[in-house]
Design brief:
The complex is a heterotrimer.
Chain A (H helix, E strand, L loop, with lengths): L2 H4 L9 E10 L2 E11 L4 E5 L6 H9 L6 E6 L2 E2 L5 H7 L1 E4 L11 H7 L7 H11 L1 H5 L10 H15 L3 E5 L7 H16 L3 E6 L3 H6 L2 E6 L2 E6 L1 H13 L2
Parallel strand pairs in A: 3-8, 3-9, 6-7, 7-8
Antiparallel strand pairs in A: 1-2, 1-4, 4-5, 9-10
Helix pairs in contact in A: 5-7, 7-8
Chain B lengths: L3 E10 L2 E11 L4 E5 L6 H9 L6 E6 L2 E2 L5 H6 L2 E3 L12 H15 L18 H12 L14 H14 L4 E5 L7 H16 L3 E5 L3 H7 L2 E6 L2 E6 L1 H5 L2 H8 L4
Chain C lengths: L1 H31 L6 H18 L4 H23 L9 H22 L16 E4 L2 E4 H23 L1 H11 L1 H7 L3 H24 L6 H6 L1 H10 L5 H21 L5 E2 L2 E2 L3 H15 L23 H19 L4 H18 L1 H7 L7 H15 L5 H22 L4 H18 L11 E3 L4 E2 L2 E2 L3 H23 L2 H11 L1 H6 L4 H21 L4 E3 L5 H13 L5 H21 L3 E5 L2 E4 H14 L8 H14 L1 H19 L5 H15 L3 H4 L11 H17 L2 H4 L3 H23 L25 H11 L10 H10 L18
Antiparallel strand pairs in C: 1-2, 3-4, 5-8, 6-7, 9-10
Helix pairs in contact in C: 1-5, 1-8, 1-10, 1-11, 2-3, 2-4, 2-8, 3-8, 4-23, 4-25, 5-6, 6-7, 6-8, 10-11, 10-12, 11-12, 12-18, 13-19, 14-19, 14-22, 14-23, 14-24, 15-22, 16-17, 16-22, 17-22, 23-24, 23-25, 24-25, 27-28, 28-30, 28-32
Classes of the chains: A alpha/beta, B alpha/beta, C mainly alpha.
Chain lengths: ~240, ~250, ~800
């Protein structure tokens, strides 16, 4: 059973919803009541400077971190406190910042790890190698020796093959060339069209605004602004470059 | 003679070229900004400058002296100080002890009459206690002197790192995102402190995501993207540079 | 040529066993990040279990073998992962090392307990069939089987780790545990399986080894050092590397045995034990050939609470009390007991030597008794007069040797440093202490101390000397910890890279502290005043020292005394309590002695649950006590009175012991609660309190413990039980509630955000009480304080809540 199977039970509920989440590391609160909702088929871009709490938000949503208060809802069901591995098996795919792959495993072995989410290996390989031909050429290469772009493609291939209900992406474009970023966001848009709720965290990127349906700016553990990307973009330029 | 001079520094990690022929210069009493998107190589450059990673090419000079082949601690003794993006505080010591450790480590290597620059007028021949007190007061940490650093919020822990680095009386200071975790008022105070340090003759190389702060305090800014300097100049020219805008916001819409 | 071939084959069959053992080590290390020092002990346990099943219970060879290797050992390994190792995930390297070392020590004692060394337990050859001749070399069936098993292990491991999802997940866990979770894998289960696999491989190697020579607990456990050496060749991560290392090691040992003449010597140095030192030499050489660990920011670690630094005054008082106690109680002891206490203090000093090294600077050494041995040998050979000058020479020699060992090893960290010191300990055991010129008859007699005209003349006198030495060195260490140098060591432990960027030369600082540590351990040897045998300086003797230094509480001087004496008084307990069985479970009985000998190991394992060490737990209860001058004075006064009672034979020694137990465990922790607080609110309690305590102690002391309870073990249990009752009664009678004093008061606005005890909810309560905007306290401390003090309410920035509709 996956989240998409549950979804109809609560009509109209967004696939991913955070309700007044607070979170703390070692007694220091870093999220002070975050509300976010990502309906099916929607890409929400979460933007903001370093230390704003974006990665913490992702950690809460994927189950690696338990909120000190507030609720995580998936398809209307309260999943706060569920383990990351259980959420992953329900169809939540998370690609953490800069380390979405196992560097000492080969490409093929990395893909094998995607099968825990309940998809057969044949399918994973087919999807991955069709969409990213370069991965097919390097299936027996150790992933740590791939270029940065290829590594992110490998990480994204998992998101693509699993056909997730919720996709959480942290700094997908970090350190990558613009062309590669564009290709990766093409994949993000493609996944969204299949009905997945996508939460993308980026520090700087106009590219993500191109594919996002909704953008939120986070500062100091709070959502500062939320709205259509074009409105947010102006606010961002101001925030980052002081124009 | 510049406080810091970096010439053609290249760093490779395996097949990945993290920095390619980066050159920059920080004059005495000058605050220089280094900005660029995440993963552009800013921290790698810091690590190369202070000897934590070994560049495959290039030279680094501190106060005119070539330090390229030196170990980290020898570079520090030439007057190079730094703070870290991921905190490297002495978590089990108190705020005062952190700064004090800096003073005491300096005392182990500083020779009498060493030419290290004085950032505070009275700083020369003070007893360690007084010097610690002076630094804590200036950074607004005096009230927290006895608090273990491990229990401080990030913003203040960063200030402790700065105080510790100052305790070694550097000639040039590399600051890696010192203002992240500070609120607006504190950031403004911090900016004023930087200006004061520079006025005392210290060269500062500042990596910071709060571009507002960088634009405000820096005389000169270098923009790093994919391991190369893509632009440099005064704040105005950098802000209006198309390549910079593209690097920050992606390849344009 | 025949000889060469024969020894080649012999070497290869040994190599096969090392290969199986070392690949098991590699499997657990790569999949859990924990280097299992107890790997050999796993194999040893398996060999004895096989003996139990096969020989004692008569199960046929192969069913017994598979039962042990494929059922019992994997279950044991999985259990170890689940209940011990999972707790230390992310802990400091030192804690990880100590937990597996403790497991090893505990297993050794458990094995000695279940299968005491009163009889040989040969398990016989696994295959009884004859011999095969290949190319003129005779191969026994056993050898052939061994090599065959190694080949099968190699193939099976390769298949599991490369070809199955489970095996690949095992490797994925090492790369990134949380990413595996995010993929839907279950790292906990994966780690458990990899420990099961590792234990199974240990069991195969253990049974194969034992089938060649009758199993014996310590040699079998330590043969794993050979596996360490082989595994290090593959940098602990590569199974083919471990196989290659095993072959080199197996052949080297075999050839050295074959071609080195029995009376070989290099100058004055006899080389007759070279063969046994080969694994240690190889381990050391391979470790030194490892590339430099690059200086980098340390990964996120669960840091232990730092041991509280005692004040110099407290250390001074503690030292004086220690010396007074030794003078007082030592004079009551019989001569053999005094001799045992000498040994105990020797251990305490060796443990103390780890305080600066492990506690302050976060390094580790498994070779402290080797330095004690060097100190003792120098003293015994050249300082036979006992003159104090020679003690200083011995200390200097140890410091110099320590520096030389540290110099190359210090570029390494954690596990490699631990292995390098282990190699040093083994090397010295075989190549230094076995030299008949240095230790004639394998003994070294350390003389009593002579200072100028004063000559110590008895064990008791030397015991006082050792107590003074311990007190002096402990005070020096406390002073050092409070000095600039001590702060530097702590700073270096917390962040080496930050220290380097401040201009600290890490290498010389580390070498310095290692030399200091070696010097202290050496002083323990030079002042020992007793006769050592070679086995006193073996690795298996040193391991518990390191273990107890950490168990006692990393870095605490008091913990060192506690830990060292615990080891030291074990033999005392052995003589006193030998015959007292406290339980009989089926096929073995447990005596008090055996329980006591296993206890330290379990205490070490308990670090898995509480990585801060036992002393910090126990210390919590006594901290209030030590802060209260009156309480300390009262305790010292009472023990002095009791001692006088025993001296004048008003009370028996057992009565004294019982009263002291009650004093330490029942009275001291509650004393501060009973005494008036500084404010003086409860003055009226002093008199009833004093009367009650007096009655309690005197009452305990005059009970005829010795006459009324025949067995020493039961007597001990009765005393312990009585002290628990006494503690309860003390609280009950006086109506004091020590925990009541801890009741938190309402948060003061001045404290908001400053104290660790005040969480967000308290802050919120304070803010609400003051009518301050709730958002204020989430700002960084300074600002929040200012705002709160000013009583003003900074309005929050409007946070826009989510818009449920996508803006398409």
């Amino acid at each position: 059973m996956t989240l998409q199977d549950i979804a109809p039970s609560v009509p109209g509920a967004p696939l991913l919803e955070l309700q007044s989440i607070t979170a703390a590391y070692g007694g220091i609160e870093v999220l002070h009541g975050v509300d976010l909702a990502v309906p099916a088929g929607t890409v929400l871009a979460l933007l903001g400077p370093n230390g704003a709490g974006k990665t913490t938000t992702i950690s809460i949503a994927c189950g690696l971190l338990t909120p000190t208060s507030g609720k995580v809802l998936m398809a209307g069901t309260d999943v706060s406190g569920a383990s990351a591995e259980d959420l992953a098996r329900l169809g939540v795919v998370t690609i953490p910042e800069g380390k979405g792959i196992f560097p000492n495993l080969t490409v093929k072995e990395n893909l094998l790890m995607a099968t825990y989410a309940g998809v057969p290996m044949d399918h994973v390989e087919e999807v991955a190698y069709t969409r990213f031909a370069r991965l097919g050429e390097r299936r027996n290469q150790v992933a740590g020796t791939l270029s940065g772009g290829e590594q992110q493609m490998l990480a994204m291939a998992r998101g693509l093959a699993v056909n997730p209900a919720v996709l959480l992406l942290d700094e997908l474009s970090m350190g990558l060339a613009p062309l590669v970023v564009e290709e990766l966001y093409g994949v993000v848009a493609q996944i969204a069209r299949e009905g997945t709720s996508i939460l993308v965290v980026e520090q700087f990127a106009r590219t993500v605004l191109g594919v996002a349906d909704l953008a939120a700016v986070m500062v100091n553990g709070r959502i500062r602004a939320l709205g259509p990307p074009d409105e947010i973009e102006n606010e961002l330029s101001a925030a980052y470059l002081g124009v | 003679m510049s406080a810091l001079e970096v010439r053609g520094v290249t760093v490779r990690f395996g097949g990945h070229q993290a920095l390619s022929e980066v050159s920059l210069e920080v004059g005495n009493g000058q605050i220089v900004g280094l900005i660029g998107p995440n993963g552009a190589g800013k921290t790698t450059l810091f690590n190369a400058v202070c000897g934590v990673v070994t560049p495959s090419a290039g030279t680094i000079r501190v106060m005119g002296r070539d330090v390229s082949g030196m170990a980290t601690h020898r570079r520090a003794r030439q007057g190079l100080g730094r703070t870290f993006q991921r905190l490297e505080v002495f978590a089990s010591l108190s705020v005062a002890e952190n700064v004090r450790a800096g003073v005491e480590i300096r005392n182990t290597w500083e020779r009498r009459g060493h030419t290290a620059r004085q950032f505070l007028a009275q700083g020369d021949s003070l007893p360690a206690d007084a010097e610690v007190e002076l630094i804590l007061n200036r950074l607004g940490l005096a009230e927290l002197a006895d608090v273990p650093v491990g229990s401080l919020p990030t913003g203040q822990a960063r200030l402790v790192e700065l105080g510790r680095a100052l305790a070694a009386r550097p000639s040039v200071l590399l600051l890696d995102e010192p203002a992240s975790g500070l609120d607006e008022t504190e950031t403004a105070d911090f900016g004023a402190l930087l200006v004061e340090l520079a006025a005392a003759g210290l060269g500062v190389l500042l990596v910071e995501h709060d571009v507002g702060l960088v634009m405000q305090v820096c005389e000169r800014i270098y923009v790093l993207d994919f391991g190369s300097v893509i632009a440099s100049g005064d704040p105005e020219s950098v802000r209006s540079n198309e390549a910079v805008v593209a690097a920050y916001l992606g390849a344009g819409t | 040529m025949d000889k060469f071939l024969t020894f080649t084959v012999l070497g290869l069959s040994q190599a096969a066993i090392y290969a199986i053992a070392s690949s098991g080590l590699v499997v657990t290390y790569t999949t859990s990040g924990i280097f299992n020092f107890a790997h050999g002990a796993f194999g040893m346990m398996a060999a004895f279990t096989y003996w139990q099943v096969h020989v004692a219970w008569g199960v046929p060879t192969w069913p017994a073998f598979f039962l042990v290797v494929l059922v019992i050992a994997p279950l044991f390994g999985a259990g170890v992962e689940r209940f011990i190792m999972r707790g230390i995930e992310g802990a400091q390297e030192v804690v990880k090392i100590v937990v597996t070392v403790s497991l090893m020590v505990a297993l050794i004692f458990i094995a000695l307990w279940i299968w005491p060394e009163d009889q040989a337990r040969p398990i016989g050859s696994l295959v009884s069939t004859g011999e095969v001749r290949i190319a003129g070399v005779t191969l026994t069936g056993q050898r052939l089987l061994t090599i065959g098993v190694a080949v099968i292990v190699a193939i099976v491991l390769r298949f599991i780790l490369r070809g199955t999802r489970l095996g690949i997940a095992m490797r994925a866990v090492v790369d990134d545990r949380s990413l595996l979770k995010l993929n839907g894998g279950r790292p906990g289960r994966t780690s458990m399986l990899s420990w099961a696999l590792g234990a199974s491989l240990a069991a195969v190697s253990g049974v194969l080894l034992a089938s060649e020579q009758a199993p014996s607990v310590i040699p079998l456990t330590l043969l794993v050092v050979n596996a360490y050496a082989a595994a290090v060749v593959g940098r602990l991560k590569s199974i083919p590397g471990a196989f290659a290392g095993s072959i080199v090691l197996g052949l080297s040992i075999s050839y050295v045995g074959a071609y080195l003449p029995a009376d070989a010597a290099w100058g004055p140095i006899a080389l007759d034990n070279l063969q046994r030192a080969v694994p240690a030499i190889m381990l050391f050489v391979v470790i030194l050939a490892q590339p430099q660990v690059s200086l980098r920011a340390h990964s996120l670690q669960r840091t232990s609470k730092p041991a509280p630094v005692p004040t110099q005054r407290l250390a001074l008082v503690g030292g004086l009390v220690l010396v007074a106690a030794v003078v007082g109680f030592g004079s009551l002891m019989s001569t053999p007991d005094q001799n045992t206490m000498l040994k105990g203090f020797g251990f305490a000093i060796a443990t103390l030597s780890l305080v600066p090294l492990t506690g302050y600077s976060g390094q580790i050494s498994l070779a402290q008794l080797t330095f004690t041995g060097i100190g003792a040998v120098v003293m015994a050979n050249w300082g036979a007069s006992g003159h104090f000058g020679w003690v200083l020479v011995a200390i200097a020699v140890c410091a110099a040797v320590g520096a030389v060992v540290a110099l190359p090893a210090m570029r390494l960290q954690g596990i490699y440093l631990a292995l390098a010191t282990a190699a040093f300990a083994i090397f010295c055991y075989w190549m230094v202490f076995q030299q008949q010129d240095l230790m004639p008859g394998s003994t070294a007699s350390v003389p009593y101390l002579r200072v100028g005209p004063i000559q110590v003349g008895s064990d008791f006198g030397q015991l006082v000397v050792l107590a003074i030495a311990f007190a002096v060195m402990a005070n020096i260490l406390v002073a050092l910890r409070r000095s600039a140098w001590g702060r530097r060591l702590t700073a270096m432990r917390d962040s080496p890279v930050a220290c380097a960027t401040l201009g600290l030369n890490l290498m010389s600082t580390k070498v310095g502290v290692f030399a200091l540590s070696a010097a202290i351990a050496g002083a323990g040897g030079a002042l020992a005043g007793r006769t050592f045998v070679v086995d006193d300086f073996s690795l298996d003797q040193s391991l518990p020292i390191t273990m107890l230094a950490v168990v006692g509480g990393i870095g605490s001087v008091g913990g060192a005394l506690l830990g060292g004496l615990l080891l030291g008084i074990q033999p005392l307990a052995t003589t006193a309590l030998a015959a007292n069985a406290i339980g009989v479970f089926g096929f073995f009985s447990a005596s008090v002695t055996q329980v006591m000998s296993v206890m330290p190991g379990f205490m070490g394992i308990s670090l898995g649950r509480n990585p801060d060490g036992a002393a910090s737990q126990i210390g919590e209860a006594y901290r209030d006590f030590s802060r209260s001058g009156e309480a300390v004075a009262a305790a010292i006064g009472s023990s002095a009175l009791l001692w006088m009672g025993a001296r004048t034979e008003l009370i028996t020694n057992w009565g004294l012991f019982a009263a002291l137990v009650v004093l330490v465990f029942a009275v001291m922790p509650v004393l501060p609660a009973l005494l008036p607080p500084p404010g003086g609110a409860r003055k009226g309690r002093v008199l009833p309190t004093s009367i009650w305590l007096l009655v309690l102690l005197v009452g305990t002391a005059v009970v005829p413990w010795e006459d009324s309870i025949g067995s020493t073990g039961f007597r001990l249990l009765a005393i312990l039980a009585w002290s628990v009752i006494a503690a309860g009664a003390t609280l009950g009678v006086l109506g004091a509630d020590p925990s009541g004093r801890m009741t938190p008061s309402a948060p003061s606005p001045d404290d908001v955000g400053l104290g660790a005890e005040l969480g967000p909810s308290e802050a919120r309560a304070a803010a609400v009480a003051l009518g301050v905007d709730e958002d204020t306290f989430t700002m960084p401390t300074g600002t929040a304080l200012e705002t709160l003090r000013a009583g003003g309410a900074g309005r929050s920035h409007a946070a826009v809540s989510s818009d449920r509709e996508p803006a398409r």
